[in-house]
Amino acid sequence: MISQIFILSSKGDHLIYKDFRGEESKDSINVFYEMVTALSGDQPPIVMSHKGLHFIHARQDGLYWVASTKTNPSPFTIIEFLNRLAALTKDYCGSLSEKSVRMNFALIYELLDEMVDFGYIQTTSTDILKNFIQTEAVSSKPFSLFDLSNVGLFGAETQQSKVAPSVAASRPIMSSRGEQGGKNEIFVDVIARLSVVIGSKGVLMKADIQGEIRIKCFLPTCSEMRIGLNEELSIGKSQLKGYSSAVRVDECRFHQAVKLDEFDTFRILKVCPSQGEQTVMQYQLCDELPCAPPFQLFPSVEKDYVNRVLIFLKLRCDLPPKSTALNVSITVPVPKGAQYSVQGDIIIWSFVDVPGLSSASLLEVGPVSMSFELPKQTCTGLQIRFLRLSPTQTGLSQRWVRYVTHSDSYTIRI
């Protein structure tokens, strides 16, 4: 049973506090924050104890989601509840951040009142909660269909499958009562996380792809949705269905609500979506990259005659001409004592008067790590052929498809 639930910012600010049983004072918040910040390392233990009070926490989007208890419940149950609370907060508020929690504190308190009764978990279902939640969500950036940049039609089979920008789905699942538009919509995201290691000579040494298909539903009623994937999709090395055009993954995992009776033959997923966000499929591809790495780095590290280490970095982008890359950053570890100066758009490293600088200092440079986001890109080739709703929705029904590839770990050795 849960005694208290509170949400803290990364700086320890009290955003949400709910006491269900009156067993402990509010000072337990400060006790938890002092314990979690006093620990060394970036991965503090999920369960901590202080004078008979147990703290179980999860950290998402820079926020601490904490439950305290004086009993001995299953930690996995509490962790699952905290993760579900964070997901519901994102569903109802549109985004998960310190600002959105502050702006929607009344809504979050109402959610907690319906989800927990005297410390006992009652429900975490979006479909059930929407019948009781009356507080309107406050969005920091209102959603507008007229502010979609680079929106285009996707595919020839469905004229309603479109590509929307990343901010399109960041709005509450419960629209304001005065709004007339944006009620019959469903967003499908095909997200890939890329882990790559490139050797010093430009040879691809490791390439892993972790992906998922995620839906966010704003439909008032929908008994079934059919998601058509690539017909030539092959799972495992022994199930290649086509020739060079085949799309292959090593393994797939599906949500328990997904029906697979048409998947083996037609590569169609059938799911009954509930309002909110839901991951319907996860997939993985190991030790293989179907396309060329999006970035190649050509580094040069040398020591000159005045006892300086010179670093030259040449970055090449191998994306198609009309593609874009967002939030690109490069991190280069350098020896201690390094100094650098900026001249225009050029960063110049110079190592001056560093004691003990030798040829071994060259080994302290690198490896280089990159982070980036590639919109409208799917590195495995997995695509959505169509989205079909049953029964057919009355009125205008919008179906948005978005592809994005993130760099999970992109390392280039020097």
Structure description:
- The protein is mainly beta and 414 residues long.
- It has 6 helices and 25 strands.
- The chain folds into 3 domains: 4-130, Beta-Lactamase, CATH 3.30.450; 185-290 and 382-412, Mu homology domain, subdomain B (Immunoglobulin-like); 295-374, no CATH class.
- A hairpin with a 5-residue loop joins strand 10 (185-198) and strand 11.
- Helix 2 (75-93) packs across helix 4.
- Mean pLDDT is 79; it is low at 142-161, 177-181 and 349-354.
Helices, by number, come to 6
Which runs of at least 5 residues are low in confidence (pLDDT < 50)?
Answer: 142-161, 177-181, 349-354
What would the CATH topology of the largest domain be?
Immunoglobulin-like
- What is the CATH class name of the largest domain? Mainly Beta
The percentage of residues in β strands lies in 35-45%
Please estimate the helix content: 10-25%
What is the number of E strands? 25
In CATH, what is the homologous superfamily of the largest domain? Answer: Mu homology domain, subdomain B
Overall mean pLDDT score?
79
**Which CATH-level-2 architecture of the largest domain?**
Sandwich
Distance between the termini: 53 Å
**Overall body shape:** globular
Structural class: mainly beta
Number of domains: 3
Q: How many strands, what sense, and barrel or not for the largest sheet?
A: 9 strands, mixed
Radius of gyration: 25 Å
